[in-house]
Amino acid sequence: GAVVSQHPSWVICKSGTSVKIECRSLDFQATTMFWYRQFPKQSLMLMATSNEGSKATYEQGVEKDKFLINHASLTLSTLTVTSAHPEDSSFYICSASDLKTYQETQYFGPGTRLLVL
Amino acid sequence: SQQGEEDPQALSIQEGENATMNCSYKTSINNLQWYRQNSGRGLVHLILIRSNEREKHSGRLRVTLDTSKKSSSLLITASRAADTASYFCATDPVFGNEKLTFGTGTRLTIIP
After folding, report:
1. Looking at chain B, which residue has its C-alpha nearest residue A91?
2. Average pLDDT over residues A110-116
3. B91 in Cβ contact with B8 (< 8 Å)
4. Which H helix or E strand runs over B32?
5. With a CB-CB cutoff of 8 Å, which residues 51-110 of chain A face chain B?
6. Do the chains contact at B45 and A34, CB–CB below 8 Å?
7. What distances in angstroms separate CA A108 from CA A111, B12, B59, B82, one per listed residue?
């Protein structure tokens, strides 16, 4: 089945630093990847849609200069949290759609837990 | 985008019993999907039901969809301890450009 990986699985950083999270589709090509954020015991909130070779589309209320997204290839999208602050601490999850099948199902990565001190 | 609502928010049942979770949504959809999330982990896709389908089965899972009421239910039969997880419904809106809208989730606990 389609596998999506994320790296790192968890990260602790100091306030003010930047953190990069990678999302890879391991055995399929994905023209579209999605980035979500999940706070404890809450649902997933879509942050942005990442399209290969073009600018990401951000949801309302999500700062594009704060959360930089780069989708450089059909198998890799990165999310960089710039100048991270404690309120950015969260669980970040990516998902990807398989280019070759009808894009109904999104395949989710295992998530990255970010803790900003 | 507005999230769907799921109920109950939390459900605890004895192993072997059936578990039913409900999801309501607000917009017209292409399909509705159910996902499972174990604590602190990513989401696992369980089942997808299209807007022109009313019922779908997959192993111990049974999903229904009522587009007139904008609601869906997930039934897990003969529950097992390993079914303990959070369950989310997600809708693929007609004009959503593939963007899924997730429900609030149901935390299911199976008591051995």
Report:
1. B40
2. 96
3. no
4. strand B29-37
5. 59, 91, 93, 95, 97, 103-110
6. no
7. 8, 26, 21, 20
